[in-house]
Each structure stands twice: as C-alpha cells, then as structure tokens.
Amino acid sequence: MPELPEVETVMRGLDGYLTGKVITRATLHRPDLRFPVPGELPALLTGATVRGFRRRGKYFFLRLDSGMSVLIHLGMSGRMVLAGAPMLHEHLTIETADGGRVGFVDPRRFGALDVIATADEDTHKLIAAMGPEPLGNEFSAPVLLAALHGKTVSIKAALLDQKIVAGIGNIYASEALFRARISPRRLAGTLGGARVERLVPAIRQTLTEAIAAGGSSLRDYVQPNGELGYFQHAWKVYGRTGEACERCPGAPCAGIRCLTQGGRSSFYCAKTQR
After folding, report:
1. CATH code, 141-232
2. Which of 21, 95, 106, 186 could make a disulfide contact with 111, Cβ separation 3.0–4.6 Å?
3. What percent of the chain has pLDDT over 70?
4. Is 264 one of the catalytic residues?
5. Cβ 2 vs Cβ 59: under 8 Å
6. Which is the catalytic residue, given 2, 132, 134, 224?
7. 2 catalytic, yes or no?
C-alpha cells in the first residue's frame, strides 16, 4: 500500500497538472471500490475548477471551487495516471478544458472515492480519528511520548497505528526505527524520552528523503507521470535480510534480520537496535 511519501508524491503531481483547470467531463466506470462511490461524483466534478489538494495521512483531497472535496485513497494498487489512453481497471476518468486527462486505476479495488464539504474534511469517518501528521508542527517528542504511554504493543505496531501518527506504513516504520537505533520488538510503552527524542527526527528525515526521491516503487506504485520512485535504492534495512547493515561493515554482525509482527515483515539490525 502506498505510504505517506508515495501519496504525497502523487498529490504533488496532480496539483501541478490539475490545479486551476476546469473539469469538462468526469466519468465513473463502476459504482464501487472498497466502498460504494457516491453517484453524484461525476456531476460534482463536471464544470468545476480545481482549487488545490490536501493530504491527510495516506489519503488526499481534491478541492473544488464549489466548496466540495473529493477524498481519494489509493488502497493497495491504486494509481493516478496523467494523459494517455484509458487503461484497464480505470474506474474514474477526469477530463479538462485544455485537453488534459487523469485516470484513477485500481486493479484490486481496495481504493476509495468519497465526497465531503471542504470545510468538513477533518470530520470524514476515515480521517477523524487520525493522529498528527509526522511532518507537521503538531508532531513532537512530547506528543509521541504521551501517545505511547501505557502501550503494550511493539513500537513497530504503534507506528503503524494511524491514531498515534498518520501516514507511516511498514517500509518507513522499519527504516525510521533503524535510524533511531530502536528495536521493532521493543514495547512502545517502554520507550523513554531519550529514545523518543531520537525517533521523531528519524521519522521526519526518513519521510522527507523518501518524498524527495519520489517515494518507493514496490509492486504497483509509480508516480502520476509514469516514472518510478527511487527511495527503494536508499533502504537501509527493508528487504535486505542477511546483509550487513551500514553500521556494522566488517564487524561481527549476524546481518539484517526479518521477523513477522502482526502479519507484516519487520527488518532490523539486532546488534545496533535496542
């Protein structure tokens, strides 16, 4: 599933392509994805001017001059494709007055489309309970420490909990914990202030670098212009089982390990992450 950096990259690509443009036609090709799609969506989009975009966690909003927003979730395999001919599994097509075209393609149909007033975005049922944005000013070591207090799950599981912090998924949780030298097995409630003080900037740095690289291309994800993301080439532990980590070259090291937590793979260096 695309995580925060991939969703941010997609949103920025759409922002540059659609903002300020008039939508002349919108076509919905099926009535449902993960949830039923509002039947009024094509009429809402047609004739509207795109005013901009906003991301919240792994979701983003397309904002219209009518004061309404379209919530978009890419799900497991969703893509936003700019220009070109219609594609297989294209469920929504948006056409603009200057000849532009955007398609929402989702082979597995775990994505979502919904409609809400722009002023009410934060009350949407998929958004309302989310924790702070990890790149926002509201996310800090004291805030994270308070959110982890008393938690008996692993810190890896806690970082995946969107009520604690929004947008972090499996890849970037593993990468941030490595940078912070924290074991993914450590119970979240046992993290003291010093570890949390390392973790918050590690999360910020990991996500910022991933966005700059266009995200990580894994399975279905590509940028809206069709280019791959490149952050997978900078992964320090994710998917590198058995390799020596960058902190242990030539030293006695069992290599990067992989364990399953909550049905997901966690990658870490047992020597340097405690």
Report:
1. 1.10.8.50
2. 106
3. 93
4. yes
5. no
6. 2
7. yes
